Amino acid sequence: MIELLLKWGAEVDACNPEGRTALHTVASRQTVECAEVLLTYGADMHLVSKTGYSPFTTAIVYNNHSVLKCFITRCDSSHLEGLRLLPLIARYADVKTMSILVASGLLKPTLDEDGFVAGRETLRLRKDYDEALGSTFEGFVAS
Length: 143
Known about the structure:
about 140 residues, mainly alpha, 2 domains, 9 helices, about 0% strand, elongated
């Protein structure tokens, strides 16, 4: 259905009143096929909604592993420069999301010491904090 709408002229980055695009919605669900179609038609995974999230960060917040992997294959670190992703990752990401991001190496050029400090503090405040989360987060330092 998405592809049909796009073929007939639907705007791929049209926003709802909250500034969310179709790709934001896809990033919050396990629909990698829809993400692929939208990206093929030129959807921008870095458009930021009024809530301050891009589709890329939405995939992190919702721990949408399959869509996050899809985004990573189509992204380079220049799109992430200036973003303070570690505190966001520390607040929302599960172990698998963190592992995907660490393994990608995508964040390495964007990481800074302030982000690590803020991220560690945020991570330790999580109700579900455990050793696995902590050690996986430390993978960003080691990468």
